[in-house]
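Q: C-alpha cells for this one, please.
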Amino acid sequence: MAHAIPRILTTALAILLISCAPLLAGDRFTDNGDGTITDHELGLMWSQTDNQGDMTWQDAQRWARFTFPTSLPSPSDDWRLPSTEELASLYSTNRYYDGYEADCGVDVKIVRDFSLSCAWVWALEEAHVTARLYDFRAGQTYMDRKAKSHGYRALAVRPLAPVQ
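A: Here is the predicted structure, written as C-alpha cells:
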C-alpha cells in the first residue's frame, strides 16, 4: 500500500501536467477583436471566419485580397489565400474534440478559435483549371476545378511582418 500512494501521486501529477501543457506553453492564437486572429506559431494573421457562402477559386482570391481587408479598421494589401500547409495547421487533431456542425450541415474540425460555414476551404495552390482545397471534415487536401463553388469557402491570411 505504501508503494501505491507515490505511484498514484506520480500518475496524477503526470495527468495534470499533460492537461495543462497548452496553458504552460502559451496560446498559439490571439483574437484581435476585429475579425482577425494572430497565429504566433506561424507568424500569420487570419480572418476569423470564412466568407460565409459558396464561391469559386477566382472569387475566393478576390475576397481574400480585396473584400475581406476592407472590413478591417486598418486594411492591409498583403492578404491572400492560405497554402494547404497553413490550412492543415488549423485542423483539430484533438481526439476529445468532435468539431461542430457548420451552417452547410457537415461537421468540421477546425481549431476552436475559428468559425467555418462549411468544411471545404480554397487554398493558394493551383494548376491550370484546378486548384487545391482543404477538407476540414477529413483533414485532407484535394484538387478540384476552379469553377466549382458548391460548399467551397475562403479564409484570408497575411504575414505578420510586411512583405517587402
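A few notes: Helices lie at 4-25, 57-67, 84-88. The two ends are 66 Å apart (CA to CA).
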